Amino acid sequence: MKKTLHSLWKEAHADNISYVDSYFHTYFKEDETRVLRVDGNIEASLQVHAKNLSLHGKLLKTSFLVGCIGSLSDRKSLVESVLDEVSKSDLITLIQTDHPEIYESLGFETVIESRVFNMSSALIPDFPIDGIVLDPASKDLVKVYNRFTKYFTGYFVRTEHDFELMKQDLRNQKGSFVGYSIDGVLCAYARIINHGTYVDVLECVYDKSGSLLRLLSFVSRGVSRIVFTASESERINKVIPEARGKKIPFIMARINDKELFERLYHIKIISAYSAFNAFGLPLFNRDFL
Predict the structure, then answer these.
(1) Smallest Cα–Cα separation from 46: which of 62, 19, 70?
(2) Residue 147 in contact with residue 207, Cβ under 8 Å?
(3) Residue 79 in 3-state DSSP?
(4) How many angstroms from the chain centroid is the CA of residue 132?
């Protein structure tokens, strides 16, 4: 089945074959695969990843649905059947999609948004390369990530193994992690893919805006543009005033047991959106497997 699905994914993502190949090499597991068959043919498929979600100071086991392919109606039918399965064990189910309207009728709401800045590298101030670290150690990446995310909610817990997989995925796509250190201590990193004429900055995690600018300065060298994706909670235009970003939906969520959620957090909620925004903490999540 893996070979068949690999081919179907390539058809669905013909503009990003390197991503598909890397996903199947690094992350694909057959026991995490769900398919919709009609007359023996696979009409839709998705992956169900188990994730630990940090939400309002509690760790919740969640199901994260990614890579859903097929016609819009077939995708919806498949997700509906998967919800019957995962709702028995997971308080929250999340899904990544470019078509949020498909899943709203199933109880999903957009809870995490991203802002994409497609900008000239000339907008980034020029800094020396002092402190730049190529391929920082995964144990140090975990520390930076943990320090950064303590100011946010709605993020997935990451381990050293998670970062090792992310490194492998990046290498497959001609990407890497780049870090910035002060006095030998890593304080920021960028996750990037180099496309030759431009650099895709998939994620920046940092201690302060100066560290962010030093990373962006380094990764923008030798290219005309950078495409930097940040969470909607970050205020990138305060750091780079000329930057103009486009807001896009990133992750949708469904509360599978509203009453249990309310008892767990001692609050009343209307929807997934109100659940994620219940305590006013800024939201951050840049996982997009």
Answers:
(1) 70
(2) yes
(3) helix
(4) 24
**250: amino acid identity, one letter:** F
Question: For strand 132-134 and strand 245-255, is the pairing parallel, antiparallel, or unpaired?
Answer: unpaired
Cα dihedral across residues 194, 199, 203, 207: positive or negative? positive
Alpha helices in 60-206 (DSSP H): 72-86, 100-103, 138-149, 160-172
Cα torsion angle, 41, 19, 109, 279, sign: positive
Distance CA 217, CA 152 (A): 25
pTM of the full structure: 0.93
Q: Hey, is 258 helix, strand or coil?
A: helix
DSSP-derived letter for residue 126 is P
Cβ partners under 8 Å of residue 65, min gap 6: 46, 47, 48, 49, 79, 82, 93, 94, 95, 96
DSSP 198-254: EEEEEEEEESSHHHHHHHHHHHTTT-SEEEEEEETTS-HHHHSTT--EEEEEEEEEE
Helices in 150-194 by DSSP H: which ranges? 160-172
Half-sphere exposure of 177 (CA within 13 A, CB side): 25
What is the helix (H) or strand (E) element at residue 66, kind and residue range?
strand 58-70
3-class SS at 262?
Answer: helix
pLDDT (tens digit per residue) in 14-58 = 888 999 899 999 999 999 999 999 988 999 999 999 999 999 999
For tokens 């290498």, what's the residue? 171
Helix (H) or strand (E) segment spanning residue 152: none
DSSP 8-class letter at 208: S
Three-class SS of residue 267? coil
Closest CA to 24 of 40, 4, 43: 4
pLDDT in tens, 6-26: 988 889 888 889 998 999 999
Q: Are 149 and 54 in contact (CB under 8 A)?
A: yes
Beta-bridged to residue 54, according to DSSP, are 59, 155
